[in-house]
Amino acid sequence: LRVAESAPAPAGGAPPRKILLATAGAAVVAAIILFIAVLPAEYGIDPLGTGRLLGLTDLAGGSGSAIKRQDTAYKTNTATFEIGPYEFVEFKYRLEQGASMIYSWTATGPVIYDFHSEPDGAPAGYAESFDKAQMPEAHGTYTAPFSGIHGWFWENPGSKLVTITLTTAGFYTTAQEFRDNDSSFHSLDDIRR
Amino acid sequence: MIRAAVRILFALVGTLAVCTPVIAHPMTGSNATFVQSIQGPAVAPFMYLGAKHMVTGYDHLLFLVGVIFFLYRLKDVVLYVSLFTIGHSITLLAGVLGGIQANAYLVDAVIGASVAYKAFENLGGFERVLHVRPNTKLAVLVFGLFHGFGLATKLQEFTLSSNGLVTNIVSFNVGVEIGQMLALTAVLILLTSWRARSSFMNYAFVTNTLLMTAGFVLAGYQLAGYVVARG
């Protein structure tokens, strides 16, 4: 360690005015940082609207807590699909960003599936794929990364008829089945009946 | 080259201290799960957690940077750091073993304020603006007590098994000191090499102003948390 003869005056002995200005400046900058970034990101307090503008308020609710409250009760749905040889079916739920569902499905034979989602406003045919495999069943949880329709594409690669039974519960609002040039809405079960 | 590197490093540290989205500094994830599952004495894990908490604890580190910023003699560094160590060891042990529950937000707000206090002192604010000379040694000791309460409240967030509690708290405390030694060594090396250059005096004022800003942000962040938690 370099040893000095004696410690010099702190910060070179700045004039009082300069010290006061620095202190006031530090307080102002700290307040700006707090109100623009820290409070929105940590607590969702957003008096200037900067948190929403910068997307910081999302941090406050999402990653910080294990609970994500919803305004409505969840719905449940059970659906069966018969898929002929080499045919396919698609079934999608409407979920808003951050909404979750749990699912289980089983098939009477192996099927090729692709869980994918179409964001609202995306060009026709655009989809983001999350889980692809060839299996006779799958179970899991899904939290929508964006608002849109989210669900499965199942294809029967064999020569025998396959029946799929799907059961879900989640904060979705609609369910739609798609087949060759054909689509229909399924009714959902309200748990508050 | 070295000079430029040191300057850049300090600029980065300053920027980081000010701009990093300030997150609370609790133990999280697998560490937290582990701490709660421990039954009986576990010296190494608690020492590791203590050291990790100190090395990654920017609130404690910023305060130490402020404390040793103008300490040129190794003797003084040892003296002041010892005072800080005595202070935080007392309250860490007393807090956890005596079950003294302090509000984590308020304690962390005081810790943030301690950073701003030390920076203000380094700027010469007490002498030149307020015309008082608060005892610097006493201040470090007292703030050390608050930092120890901060450490204690972090540990008290978990349901610690009473089996081996004393061993584990002492291990945690020893880990804190090891982490503090490691962090201090790094800070001292940087400060010492910086002091040899003229830029040190030129930027000492700015650096302490940034330090004070960081202290205000930390204090404000924790005070807001206190208000939100009381709801």
Structure notes:
The complex is a heterodimer of chains A (193) and B (231). Chain A has helices at 16-43, 50-54, 57-61, and strands at 75-83, 88-95, 100-119, 128-143, 148-155, 162-170, 175-179, 182-186, 189-190. Chain A has 193 residues and is α+β, with helices and mostly antiparallel strands. In chain A, strands 1, 2, 3, 4, 5, 6, 7, 8 and 9 form a 9-stranded antiparallel beta sheet that branches. The longest helix of chain A has 28 residues, at 16-43. Chain A starts with 15 loop residues before the first helix and ends with a strand. With 231 residues, chain B is mainly α. The N and C termini of chain B lie far apart (52 Å). The radius of gyration of chain B is 18 Å and the shape is globular. Helices cover 79% and strands 0% of the residues of chain B. In chain B, α1 (2-19) packs parallel to α10 (198-230), α6 (104-122) runs antiparallel to α8 and α6 runs antiparallel to α10 (198-230). The A-B interface holds A 1-4, 6-16, 18-20, 22-23, 25-27, 29-31, 33-34, 37-39, 41-43, 45, 56, 59 and B 18-19, 21-24, 70-74, 76, 116, 119-125, 127-129, 188, 192, 195-196, 201, 204-205, 208-210, 212-217, 220-221, 224-225, 228.
**What global shape of chain A is seen?**
elongated
Which structural category fits the helices and strands of chain A?
A: alpha+beta
Average pLDDT figure of chain A: 86
- Major sheet of chain A, described briefly? 9 strands, antiparallel
Provide a count of the helices of chain A. 3
Supply Rg of chain B. 18 Å
Q: How is the quaternary structure best described?
A: heterodimer
What is the N-to-C order of secondary-structure elements of chain A (H for helix, E for strand)?
HHHEEEEEEEEE
Total strands of chain B: the figure is 0
The largest β sheet of chain B comes out as:
none
Percent helix among the residues of chain B? over 70%
Distance between the termini of chain A: 77 Å
**Class by alpha and beta content of chain B:** mainly alpha
Count of runs of 4 or more consecutive helical residues of chain B: 10
The general outline of chain B is globular
Rounded average pLDDT of chain B: 81
Low-confidence stretches of chain A: 1-11
Would you list the SSEs of chain B in sequence order as H and E? HHHHHHHHHH
Please bin the fraction of helical residues of chain A.
10-25%
The portion of residues forming beta strands of chain B comes to under 5%
Largest interface, and how many residues on either side?
Answer: A-B, 37 and 44 residues
